[in-house]
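Lecture 7 notes: from sequence to structure.

We start with a single chain of 245 residues. Read the sequence below before looking at the structure.
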Amino acid sequence: MGHLPPPSDEVARCSHSGSQGIVKIQQIEAVYRSRRPDDYPPERLPEIAFLGRSNVGKSSLINSLLGRKKLAATSKSPGKTREIAWYRLSGATGACFFVDLPGYGYAKVARQIREELWAQLIDTYLLSDRPLAVAIQLLDIRRGKPTELDEQMIHWLREVRVPHIFALTKSDKLKRGPRAQAAQEFAKILGTSEEDAPVPFSAVTAEGKRELWSLIDQRLSQYEQPSSNNDNAFIQKHGIEVRRA
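Now the structure, written as tokens:
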């Protein structure tokens, strides 16, 4: 467990479950790296999960949100991440976890290996009884639309009713006009409401940082902890068979 100094006061914040206010983060901890459910953190805090294709800019987005440069490390071998990274964020009145799920779909990794390395890790986590407040699906804004693998992931999230929002990464790579047009096209394809419209995000210019934190705060404040009387309530509700790694 590694304690890190407090982030800048710019916008790094976290809301406690049930809290109506915004809590500035006082401490960030790189707490756990897990490969199977038995290794998940025992502490039951609201969780914000991040997922997307390899090289979509997930680590850069997490570091930007938390005001860090190298907290979430980029894998030296894209597509071969074998674990989930958990970051515990705490403030004066609450705490939560950022959950960094492995990237998926790296083209240079054989399909069988891709499925073995990331699919089971992602599926097992999202189908578990973890207190997930929201999953943030990252999409590369430069592509103009979700890739085939992105579409499969989005369909799956909606099929099992995982709460999710979208961030359009690398927005600094497009000029203002094409960027706005791409964001509108994504919103149309994804069928999102105005309140949950995809957020153009840049780790370089910090575009979208406040907007994404605002959506995260909203989801955390609305989150209700599942009943502890039935740890498998979500799975039973949806008739899901969890595929264990």
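The CA atoms of residues 165 and 228 lie 26 Å apart. Keep this in mind for problem set 3.
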